[in-house]
Write a structure and sequence with these properties.
By secondary structure, this protein is of the alpha+beta class. The chain has 2 domains: about 5-80, Glutaredoxin, CATH 3.40.30; about 100-240, Glutathione S-transferase Yfyf (Class Pi), Chain A, domain 2 (Up-down Bundle). The chain is built from 9 helices and 4 strands; from the N terminus they run E-H-E-H-E-E-H-H-H-H-H-H-H. Strand 3 (about 55-60) and strand 4 (about 65-70) form a beta hairpin. The protein is globular. The chain binds glutathione (GSH). Glutathione binds near residues 40, 41, 53 and 71.
């Protein structure tokens, strides 16, 4: 099989599994599990991917093979090389000239460029200070709230998906930060009703269900206002209990 996706359970690579399932193209999924103690990448994945992270894509349809380890680049590559080439076909990206093109670009990059970065920084800062009243932690909470309101208002405006009326790869890119990431950094979404509506719509997509079935042992979608913490990893348990 020439297109191989290396996916790690409970990780950012779920974006790409969902995207590939929506695209309905043939690929081989290789599933790895986080180290059972630290929850970091297992050694087998580090040995295969020089970046040591998931996702990792190998395309051996071309010579030399294309190997990519950044999810935004992987999504853009798959859409450009394996997506529909004509405007009349249902595409998961938007081309220049499409009224949603600029919005698509912004939302395609927003989750990984801004939201995921803030979540990771906030998680690290909260753990490092151990103090929810620390000035930096409080600033981070306010920043995350502003970012989530930005997403929520966008979804209220479209009444549908991030780039507009139709699903796009921007939705696939955003899903991890608003679902599975919350198992590592609990984020209560009660105040963001449009994000919650969008999450229900995501969970209603057969391709998303297939992605969870194939890549994450048919895990229930983490779409409620609050979700469970990943306390099954001993190396994370004490950490997660602090949140
Ligand atoms: N910016 C990268 C981030 C990749 C990344 O950090 N993946 C995490 C999974 S959520 C990982 O592999 N972590 C394991 C580790 O760092 O050991 C992307 O979007 O692909």
């Amino acid at each position: 099989m020439p297109l191989e996706l290396y996916h790690m359970h409970l990780s950012q690579s779920e974006r790409i599994v969902w995207l590939l399932e929506e695209m309905e193209i043939s690929y081989e999924l290789k599933v790895f599990y986080r180290d059972p103690v630290t929850a970091l990448s297992p050694d087998e994945l580090k040995a295969l991917n020089p970046a040591g992270t998931a996702p990792y894509l190998r395309d051996t349809n071309v010579s030399p093979p294309v190997c990519l380890s950044e999810s935004t680049a992987i999504a853009a590559y798959l859409l450009a090389v394996y997506g529909p080439q004509s405007e009349s076909e249902a595409r998961l990206d938007r081309a220049p000239g499409d009224p949603d093109y600029a919005a698509y670009l912004e939302w395609f990059h927003y989750a990984n460029g801004s939201l995921q970065a803030s979540l990771f920084r906030q998680m690290s800062l909260t753990l490092a200070t151990g103090d929810p009243e620390h000035a930096g932690v409080r600033r981070g909470v306010a920043r995350l709230d502003a970012q989530l309101r930005f997403v929520d208002e966008r979804l209220a405006r479209t009444g549908a998906w991030l780039a507009g009326e139709r699903l796009s790869a921007a939705d696939c890119m955003a899903v991890f930060s608003l679902t599975t990431m919350r198992g590592f950094y609990p984020l209560d979404l009660t105040l963001y009703p449009n994000i919650l509506r969008w999450l229900r719509d995501v969970a209603g997509r057969p391709a998303y269900r297939r992605a969870l079935e194939k890549g994450d042992n048919s895990m229930e979608p983490m779409i409620g206002p609050t979700v469970r913490k990943f306390t099954e990893f001993p190396g994370l348990k004490a950490v997660l209990e602090k949140f």
